[in-house]
Amino acid sequence: MTASNNLRAGNLGVIVTASLAGLLFGFDTVVISGVTESVGNVFGLAKGGFWYGFAVASALVGTLIGALIAGVPGDRYGSRDTLKIVGFMYVVSAVGCAVCWNVESFYVFRFIGGLAIGASSVLAPVYISEIAPADRRGALTGLFQFNIVFGILLAFVSNALVQQASGGEDLWRLKLGIAAVPAVLFAILMHTIPQSPRWLMMRGRVDEARDSLERVGVRDTGAMLEELRRGADEARQHSALRLFSAANRRPIVLAILIALFNQLSGINGILYYLNDTLRAAGIEGMSNAWQSVAIGAANFIATLIALRVIDRVGRRKLLLIGSVGTAVSLAAAAAIFMTGQGGQYFSAVLIVFIAFFAFSQGAVIWVYLAEIFPTPVRSRGQALGSATHWAMAAVVAQIYPMLSATSLAVPFAIFSACMVLQFFVVLAIFPETRGVELESMDKALARKTNT
């Protein structure tokens, strides 16, 4: 039995616990969609104006910074211990947004939540990828994405239930404050899982690495320790390796491209302003809220399917399939707003778009980013990809209401064109990484793209 197969029987609970960072990520990211109009009214923010967009983008500024800096404490203290602090930040953000006293304090607490989201997007996938076996790494790292979409679904359901129970009363503070409940649970659970055995071995803490392997269910710890020791020795030889070096040019390009295209699909702009977008299509009130739930459910189901096939079909094929599906559905949405016809089908078009996105780049991005960089720079590489993702998310969130002020056909047409471009970029330069051991990834990236 190989070391990889040993890990297959490991403690799934450890990976599930770490992936719960994704649930907070998804919930905190999308819960704002149910309160954008209320926050704008309470604080006097003109709809379509800069500060209206900044009510959403303020969190994304924090997310960008969190993604950029998370790799440093992640490398120094380990992903697990850094995620403990991240859980506390989620709690502070949720409670602060619920009790904010002016728009400036609202921006600050959303910024703190953004820091936590950005750090989660770096640290949790790295931790999981270092625990998971190569032949199941896609599905297990994909649990992070599963929890993101589950968090998104919970946020939509939570917003709808609060709105339904309020009897018309504006309870936007409650919608935001509810996020503190899963945040407290996550902060507690992070104290129950071990440090990454790969991280421990890199620091020469062999006995602790052995204990960590036993806690995740590895039977033949000797074989696995030897494998980790070889990887650690090689990593130490390159410990001074800079991220921005000729050796890392290929993974850097791939990380930036997959992150850029993920957001150029328009996914976050659409989700952040989902209620506003549905309202523009003529869907109002409780119908609006429950349509959001239906879209969140489609996201959830498509992600489940993707995680079942990502290690069989591969990352590259999923990206190609998603490029076609998202391009067509976004073009259909643009046509609806351009012609003023077919508004009754808009929700169905959005559901198709969300399903294709979740099945492809939604499921692939965090897996791919956690795979493609060598061990000495993995956290920094993940941070680069994540920061690129969130920088573009901030841009999209800021300009989406401005672009759509005249007609929503404009942003949807732009997003569709970007997905057409993504198809040809993936076809030309993206390699397949499924089933490749992390220690051998550089060789896989050096090969030509394959199907």
Number of domains: 1
Helix % is over 70%
Task: Tell me the fraction of residues in β-strands, as a range.
Answer: under 5%
Class based on secondary structure composition and strand pairing = mainly alpha
Q: What is the top-level CATH class?
A: Mainly Alpha
CATH superfamily: MFS general substrate transporter like domains
Q: Indicate the CATH architecture.
A: Up-down Bundle
Question: In one word, what is the shape?
Answer: globular
CA(first)-CA(last) distance: 29 Å
Q: Treating each run of at least 4 consecutive H or I residues as one helix, how many helices?
A: 22
Number of beta-strand segments: 0
Determine Rg (CA atoms, Å): 21 Å
